[in-house]
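Protocol step 4 of 5: obtain the predicted structure for the target chain.
Materials: sequence only (see below). No template structures provided, no constraints applied. The aim of this step is simply to have a reference model before the mutagenesis design in step 5. Sequence pasted as it appears in the construct record:
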Amino acid sequence: MKVVILAGGYGTRLSEETDVRPKPMVEIGGRPILWHIMKLYSSQGFNDFIVCLGYKGEVIRNFFANLYLNSSDVTFDTLNGSFNVLKNSSPDWKVTLVDTGLDTLTGGRLLRVRNLIKEDTFMMTYGDGLADVDLRKLLLFHKKHGKLATVTAVKPPPRFGSLDIDRSSRVISFSEKEDKNENWINGGFFVLNKEILKYIGKDEPYFEGYPLNNLARDRQLFAYRHYGFWRPMDSMSDKRVLEEMWKRKEAPWKIWKD
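Step 4 output (structure tokens):
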């Protein structure tokens, strides 16, 4: 089954990092977040990827072009340029990289790889979010309801404290962290049938705009509720949180063995 990863955005809210690399190549624990996402999928049996490139896509190309060598113990003969691989620990992935345009929106990126998706069902996610989603259960849920699209619904992590203020500007109560997240949001990790491509249209919009709205209108969109860990890397603060989790060996998304 193909796994499409949208990895072409500018990542402007992470400009401290994305001035020199695309957002999916920002590192957590010395590895690009894109690598972490792909390890999540491959550890559950999904290892055939299509990565939609855009902004600084050459950085992602160079990463995969050198991944085998960089994952190996190697003896080099500098006289004739030959080398012998002693041990290789690179992942068992098939990765197709496609330039889907610099300013293309998410729906357009999906349309530009449609000819590479041969199966009726495929997975899709973003190149900047981590979770401990059980992808097999997600796929089973999608097959069970029999409709065209499944989105993984998550509760957003708390970001800000809250102030309860009366009319005189007096603070009635102060909460350092707001833990009451009642609304479900789009956490990525989609399972889709190819027929959803008809909902995107020729003007290549945001997939999260009228394509998903129209799927919902036609009762073709179901939500798989994920109660576990999920966190996007939208800011330097998010990056630091994820980095600290990895350093403490308390990264919930790391469901694979080294």
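Step 4 remarks: The chain has one domain: 2-247. DSSP finds seven helices and 16 strands in the chain.
Proceed to step 5.
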